[in-house]
Amino acid sequence: MEKKIIILTAPSGAGKTTIVRKLLASMPVLSFSVSAATRAPREGEVDGKDYYFLTADDFHHKIEIHAFAEYEMVYAGKYYGTLKSELERIWHDGQIPMVDIDVKGALAIKEKYHDNALTVFIEPPSLDALRVRLSERGTETKDSLEERLAKARYELSFSHEFDKIVINDDLERAYEEVKRLIQDFLNIK
């Protein structure tokens, strides 16, 4: 079996996580690729299910032994990465990894796996719509909201480097479009 990978990325608040959950529920060929992170677990998060929570030392050791397909310091002192062993585990189980990561990580994986990777950028309809979505979550301070919007502007500047761009102005339509792109890429109905 060809080792294919599906990579979804988007600015925070663009609806990527919801689309990923719907895809995983409707397409049993896909399996969520659990990322590694040096941040502390949030309430309710489970090690090995939500993330592989690593110490900074463990993470750096894995960098040294080339254990990552990609990794990056996403926020100051906070590292995230995709373990090669996680991708291999999913392929070994006869499934396709669904990787939900940031822009730079997505492009790094695409560079390694070329035509075996499909990169999809989920774009919000506008930055104003994104501001509203993030505000409605009730999890952002004024400063963190501005930080996320600045990061979103930066991430949007890379959208043209992705295989496909899907604008999420309607969640169900965006989900169906992404699902169709994946089916076409994997040659499945």
Topology readout:
Layout: E1 5-9, H1 16-26, E2 30-32, E3 36-37, E4 52-53, H2 56-64, E5 68-75, E6 78-83, H3 84-92, E7 96-100, H4 103-113, E8 117-123, H5 127-137, H6 142-156, E9 164-167, H7 171-186
Parallel strand pairs: 1-7, 1-8, 2-7, 3-4, 8-9
Antiparallel strand pairs: 3-6, 5-6
Largest sheet, if any? 5 strands, parallel
Strand-residue proportion: 15-25%
**Mean of all residue-level pLDDT scores:** 91
Q: Count of DSSP E strands?
A: 9
Computed Rg: 16 Å
Q: Can you walk me through this structure?
A:
With 189 residues, the chain is of the alpha/beta class. It has one domain: 3-Layer(aba) Sandwich (Rossmann fold). 43% of the residues lie in helices and 22% in strands. It has seven helices and nine strands; from the N terminus they run βαβββαββαβαβααβα. The chain has helices spanning 16-26, 56-64, 84-92, 103-113, 127-137, 142-156, 171-186; strands at residues 5-9, 30-32, 36-37, 52-53, 68-75, 78-83, 96-100, 117-123, 164-167. Strands 2-7-1-8-9 form a five-stranded parallel β-sheet, with helices on both faces. It has a four-stranded mixed β-sheet with strand order 4-3-6-5. The longest helix has 16 residues, at 171-186. The radius of gyration is 16 Å and the shape is globular. The two termini are 18 Å apart. The model has no long low-confidence stretch (mean pLDDT 91).
